[in-house]
Write a structure and sequence with these properties.
Blueprint: H1 5-11, H2 25-35, E1 41-42, H3 55-66, H4 79-93, E2 102-105, H5 108-119, E3 125-130, H6 136-141, E4 146-151, H7 162-167, E5 173-179, H8 191-204, E6 207-211, E7 236-241, E8 254-257, H9 260-273, H10 279-291, H11 295-313, E9 321-323, E10 330-334, H12 342-353, E11 355-356, E12 358-359, E13 370-374, H13 379-395
Parallel strand pairs: 1-11, 3-4, 3-5, 5-6, 6-7
Antiparallel strand pairs: 2-8, 7-8, 9-10, 10-13, 12-13
Helix pairs in contact: 3-10, 4-10, 5-9, 11-13
Length: 396
């Protein structure tokens, strides 16, 4: 039987639609071994494995559900949650927005996919900075545009060359996507860089999507944002969620914030796509934002403590290079000196040492030799996993 060409576009994880390695293959193999009762150190996913959603949030969902909050609601998100997100966004970015500028989705991934649908057509171009999160190429390539990648280079300390980014703009460019802090690298952008990008977007009528799902994993004074740059409000779309900041990965609550006309189009798509999200989860999300404001600080502190443990354990891993962004949820290894790809390294590490890490082969150009280590677990378990990584590297 015949399938649409969309199935091919969303199946490919690469920007050029070439065959590539499934970046989740090692993680899924490790999860299957865990399900079989084996003890595997899981450092391959971006969540705090053993942490729970704050009790006050869980109680809010249960109370809401028991009170009958399980019927159809506003497809763009309930007004109380959209207003809470707008206030939260203002606190994070300094940009004043209203509830009408916010559209609620089933997580940031859903928001990104929806944006691709309403902003991009066949023959358009979208610019991604590589390495990028593994779903980006398929997400933004789904409507049929040409996906253009601008790769950060090892020789430039994996920092974005803004001249190279701006040179990639053509008359067909409709969207530029930035992820700050970047997944997997954890890199951030300077205000000067962002000013040039915003200026180019304004001058060329290009949308700038900022994927900010990790914004709460770094201290506010350690990251520059584009929201208050003159002209940014007309082109900027911010995607966020409560997944990392409030330990709510499985709740699937995220949003897109942009000009009201964009929100209207996203609302029309939501009617076709999910017809509104569960009101009891939206009630819990509102409580998370308004009454669990200390949780992001706790998450940052915990991640920094784990980072100290990881850096101490991985201090002597020559010839492999350790890439530490200083804050956030990950550190990386550049394993090229071992003569192995990231995927080969991750497969062998799982087999030899029962440690699961994420190879960045599927994160677009530049990720072929990068291995992402998530700060997913605590204390002795994390230290032991890192020691096993060191032992594996020495054995190679």
């Amino acid at each position: 039987m015949k399938f649409s060409t969309l199935t091919q576009r969303i199946e490919s994880e690469s920007a050029d639609n070439s065959t590539t390695i499934d970046p989740w293959a090692v993680h899924n193999r490790a999860m299957q071994r865990v399900a079989n009762g084996e003890q595997i150190a899981m450092l391959s996913i971006g969540q705090e494995t053993h942490e729970s959603t704050p009790e006050i949030v869980v109680d809010a969902a249960v109370d809401s559900l028991r009170s009958g909050r399980h019927h159809y609601v506003d497809v763009s998100g309930e007004a109380h949650l959209r207003a809470a997100v707008a206030r939260y966004h203002h606190t994070l970015t300094g940009q004043p927005v209203g509830a009408d500028d916010v559209t609620i989705f089933a997580g940031a991934q859903n928001a990104l996919f929806a944006l691709a649908q309403v902003l991009l057509d066949i023959a358009d171009e979208v610019i991604l900075v590589a390495p990028f999160y593994t779903t980006y190429a398929a997400t933004f390539g789904a409507p049929g545009p040409n996906v253009v990648t601008v790769q950060v280079e090892r020789d430039n300390d994996y920092q974005l060359d803004i001249d190279q980014l701006l040179a990639a703009i053509t008359p067909k460019t409709r969207v530029i996507v930035l992820n700050a802090p970047n997944n997997p690298l954890g890199s951030r952008y300077t205000l000067a860089q962002l000013e040039r990008v915003v200026q180019a977007c304004v001058e060329n009528a290009i949308w700038l999507i900022l994927d900010a799902v990790y914004i709460d994993t770094v201290a506010a004074d350690c990251i520059d944002l584009p929201h208050q740059i003159p002209g940014a409000a007309s082109v900027l779309i911010t995607v966020g969620s409560l997944s990392k900041s409030h330990r709510m990965t499985g709740w699937r609550i995220g949003w897109a914030i942009g000009p009201a006309p964009l929100a209207a189009h996203l609302g029309h798509l939501s009617v076709c796509m999910h017809y509104g999200l569960p009101p009891f989860i939206q009630d819990a999300a509102t409580v998370a934002i308004e009454q669990s404001s200390a949780t992001p600080n706790t998450v940052r502190q915990v991640l920094q403590q784990r980072r100290v443990l990881v850096l101490a354990a991985l201090v002597n891993i020559h010839p492999v290079k350790l890439i530490d962004p200083g804050q956030g949820m990950f550190v990386l290894l550049d394993v090229e000196p071992l003569g192995m790809s990231a995927y080969q390294f991750a497969v062998a590490l799982l087999a030899d040492q029962d440690v699961s890490v994420l190879p960045c082969d599927g994160f677009g150009p530049g990720g072929h030799f990068l291995v992402r280590i998530g700060l997913c677990t605590d204390g002795d378990a994390l230290t032991d996993a890192c020691q096993r990584i060191v032992e594996f590297i020495r054995g190679r």
